[in-house]
Amino acid sequence: MSGVRDDPGMDRTRAAHPTATPLGSATAAVVSVVRRTVDEVFEGVAGLRRDVESAFAGGTTVGRDDLAELYPTLTAPLRMPGGLAKGAGFVAAPQLLADAPWWLEWWVREPSGEPSRLVVDVDPDGEDFYDYTTLPWYRDPQRTGEPTVTGPYVDYLCTDDYTLTFTAAVRNGDAFLGVVGSDVDVGLFEAIALPSLRAVPCPATLINAHGRVIASNSPHRRGGSLVRDVDVDALWEHGTVAGTRLARCGNFPIGLMY
Amino acid sequence: MGTRRFGRGPRSALFAPLESLSRTELVTHRLADAIMLGLLTDAEQLPSETALATGFGVSTVTVREALTALRQRGLIETRRGRGGGSFVRSPAEDTTEVLRERLREYSPGTLRDIGDHYAAISGAAAELAAERADRDDVARLRSAVVTLETAARPGDRRRADGHFSIEVAAAAQSARLTRAEMALQTEVGPLFWLVMEDDSAHGLAVERCRALTAAVDDGDGPRARVAAQERISDAVGNLTERHLELVRQPRE
Question: Helix, strand or coil for residue A129?
């Protein structure tokens, strides 16, 4: 932590002479909370992926009605009381379904308990149509084949909320069928991470790969803003830059900067 | 009358089944959009209530409510008896006429006030976008500018222009500003997009959007705000001129 005093903008005075153990265990606790949360969401996503893949495994034509049969499993994460997901579902690759060239089978949590289907303009000639294949939550798992965390971002395609989206590619052999995923409200994610963040005895901030702030124990790091006073690319690459460290929270682009 | 004649081309999606949770508003929006976009033309007879209900996959009660809403908006008229039914009232060519009529009713002062509100929202969104946009956000803004630039038909230009503004608000990372932008587009968007039928106004809008994107890319908030405000100011200027032109002409 030699460089902390070179950063007058941040209140790091309490971190000037930390004993390694309290700081280390406090940051490890944050990482563990984030990992557990992310794992829980991806567990639900993996379940969705298995169900959608088996629906397409038969090789017969699949239409919207067949997806409707997936309703119980697609909405399972949204029925769990106190569950993290506020939205979940399957987004089909263009021209995949027999009766709808573009389709989102996406459901959102409702206060009443019964999830409702999100109605999006999927008519390419429609006023509100949007080509979702260009959006990161669709494009990135398609490109990499890896589960992806997108955000925080304003989800203007669906709920217009500030959102973290967890998606995974759905495949049938080599064929890419689309993505399954879950949305988590950034505010909820923040609330889950905050108690452990507050136990860290120096400014500590959860950021994504772009250096966008997800949650922080410092009022100087506002949610949604970009970290610009630290070289975030270098931080992700080397794990430490000028006394600022980054602890990765698993294999996902969420890191704890402190 | 059946729905068969709606079964081809871009209109086929128009009468495709709606989702199980569809509501009166959805049916209303779908039909209103189709009328505004000219997919349904003037004097065209709509399918019967039963056929619409089957086509949309909703109850006849829902269809009846939607038709009432469309009638109240003057988009259809219903004739009773033999040869009766619901008929489209606003052909695509006349959509611009409807907007012109609306523009005639706004005073220059009202236009100025709408512009002030719009400039406040989009200016703030642009300034924050410059502070907060990451590489992906900037890439999406650039691609939205290209879409706007290559859009030839007024409808495509309108849609591209709307998307660009929503991308800016989303790049600001503000859900509230994004919703405010969307609400303004719903309220006064069609009027503002009237200017898009004019090629030189379209060219100017593309220039402003490009300048805004460059400012966001440079992280220059004040410049981004100015570009966003100038964009609104251009449109208000254009609309005010049109308004004055309209009130100079005698009403029929």
Answer: coil
Q: How many inter-chain contacts (A to B, CB under 8 Å) are there?
A: 67
CB pair distance less than 8 Å for B140 and A134: yes
Q: Do domains B10-88 and B96-248 have the same CATH topology?
A: no
If DSSP codes are grouped into helix, strand and coil, which group holds residue B18? Answer: coil
Contact status of B10 with chain A (Cβ, < 8 Å): yes
Please give the DSSP secondary-structure letter assigned to residue B45: B
Q: Determine the 3-state secondary structure of B147 from DSSP.
A: helix
Nearest alpha carbon to residue A33 among A189, A251, A172:
A189
Q: Cα(A204)–Cα(A215) distance, rounded to whole angstroms?
A: 9
| pLDDT class of A21 with cuts at 50, 70, 90 | low
Chain A contacts to B (CB-CB under 8 A): 68, 99-100, 116-117, 119, 123, 125-127, 130, 134, 136, 152-154, 156, 160-162, 210-212, 224-226, 228
Return the residue in A156, A162, A207, A228 with the most chain B beta carbons within 10 A, the one to mutate for interface testing: A156
Are B13 and A210 in contact (CB < 8 Å)?
A: no
Q: Could you tell me the CA-to-CA distances from A112 to A81, A85, A189 in Å, in that order? A: 11, 15, 22
pTM listed for this prediction: 0.73
B182 touches chain A (CB under 8 A): yes
Residue A158 binned pLDDT confidence (cut-offs 50, 70, 90): confident
Q: Homologous superfamily of B96-248 in CATH?
A: GntR ligand-binding domain-like (1.20.120.530)
Whether residue A152 is preceded by a cis peptide bond, meaning omega within 30 degrees of 0, is: yes
* pLDDT band at residue B142 under the 50/70/90 scheme: very high
DSSP H or E run through A153 = strand A148-154
Fold assignment, B10-88: Arc Repressor Mutant, subunit A (1.10.10)
| Residue A246 dihedral angles phi and psi, to the nearest 5° | -130, 125
Residue A48's nearest CA partner among A71, A74, A85, A68 is: A74
Amino acid, res. A177: L
Tell me whether B166 touches chain A (CB under 8 Å).
Answer: yes
Token pair belonging to A71:
């309703």
Q: Which residue of A has its CA nearest to B170?
A: A154
User: Domain extents for chain B?
Assistant: 10-88, 96-248
* Whether complex ipTM tops 0.90: no
pLDDT at A11: 45
Interface test mutation site (partner B, options A127, A128, A207, A213, max chain B beta carbons within 10 A): A127
